[in-house]
Amino acid sequence: MTPLSRRAFATAVTASLLAGCGGRQADRGAGRGTAAARPAGTDPAATRLAGTTASPRPAAKSVHPLGRSVPVRLRVPAIGVDTPVMSLGLAADGSVQVPPIEAHDRAGWYRNSPTPGQTGPSVILAHVTVGAYGDGVFRHLARLRPGDRITAGLADGAAPEFSVTDVTTVAKSAFPTGAVYGDVDRPELRLITCGGPRSGTGYLDNVIVFAELVPTGP
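RESULT FIELD:
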C-alpha cells in the first residue's frame, strides 16, 4: 500500500465522508454532508465493489503510472462536464470538504488521495445540485456507463485518460469505504456525488464512478 493510499483510507474510515450534494443543508451554509463512511463489506454492493476494484487483472497492455501532479481540470464528454478542479482537504469536524455552493461550481480533488495517474485511487468530488443555482457539475454523473472516457488535466501539462469500469448508487449509511479509498495496484479514479431520493437535509445516496487509467503504449 502506498503512503498516500494508506493515508486516504485511514482518513476515510475515521472521518465522515462528504460527497457534494448542494441540498438544503448546504443552502444553510453547512457546505458539508453527513454520510458516515464505513469499511467495505457492510452491504452486498460494498462487497461486490471491493472485490472488483482490488482484484488483479491480466496485463494485456502495460499501464505506466505518472508522477505526482495535482489536477486542475476534469473533462467527461459523455455528460458534458468540462470543469476546473480545486484542492480539498478535511473540514474542522473531520469530514471531507466539498467545493463551495456557488453559481459556477467546480469539482474538487481530495488531496489526501493520489493525483490522477499515480498508483492508487484518486478521488474527485462535485455537487449534483447547488441550491438556488440549479444543477451542479456532477448532475448527470449517474448516466455514465462502462467504457465512457474521463480526462484529468494536470498542473504539469499531462492529461491522463481513464475508462469507466463501474457506476453504482449506494446508501450513504452503507458507503463502501474500502472499495473507494482502499489500496489498488494500478492508477484508478473515483468520481463521487450525491444521488437517490431527497430527504429533509439533502440526498440519501451517493453515486460513485470507478475508472482506470487507459494504457498509452503497446
